Amino acid sequence: MANLGPADYSPYPVATYDGLYTPDEGKAMLLTEMVDEEVAMREVARVMLTSENATIFPGPQVLYAWSEEAKKKATLIKEMSEVLGAKMIPMYDYRPKYPKIDAEVEINPNHPNLTIWHNNIKACIFIGVHCHYANVALKIIRSETDCYTIGMCALSGHEDAMATIRDQHSEDLAKFIEIAKEVKQELGK
């Protein structure tokens, strides 16, 4: 007999049904494990540096100069992309386009998996993406692709990402970049 309710609407159970929740302050999540933030940063850097078509998806919270913090983050994300050798696909506007959209062309909350599939992305970082959109997109990507998803969130993180690091502000991004440089050197890249 099937379960009744929202759990059966998803092709793959959402993370909370698997007992995964966002990490506590100072912690991060790697797959199903809660770890120290620096451990997660090292693993995220390793995954991004060794995965095919690693991509950063910056969202509106860092694409637009709406605050000094957003400006700092945007500069750091560009540097992060260079250090990781990652592409960037900006998510300028991901509001649904009604009454008709072309899902192959436009980023839409219902079709983030198409961006992953069509670009053969094996690892990605969501950063500066509004939480409500990131949560929906990460659920779809998790159930529809083999992409290793990373949520670098300014708030509490995203349980549907394969790795999530919470409370990421400009000083934390600067720390991540330094860790990524170390990992890159360790990998001989």
Shape category: globular
Question: What is the CATH superfamily classification?
Answer: Phosphopantoate/pantothenate synthetase
The domain count comes to 1
Query: What is the end-to-end distance?
Result: 52 Å
Determine the fraction of residues in helical runs and give it as a percent range.
Answer: 25-40%
Strand order of the largest sheet: 2-1-7-6-5-3-4
List the uncertain runs.
none
Strand content: 5-15%
Report on the structure:
The chain is α/β, with parallel strands linked by helices. It has one domain (24-94, 104-186): Phosphopantoate/pantothenate synthetase (Rossmann fold, 3-Layer(aba) Sandwich), CATH 3.40.50.12640. Helices cover 39% and strands 14% of the residues. Strands 2-1-7-6-5-3-4 form a seven-stranded mixed sheet, sandwiched between helices. α1 packs across α6 and α3 (68-84) packs parallel to α6. The longest helix has 17 residues, at 68-84. The chain starts with 26 loop residues before the first strand and ends with a helix.
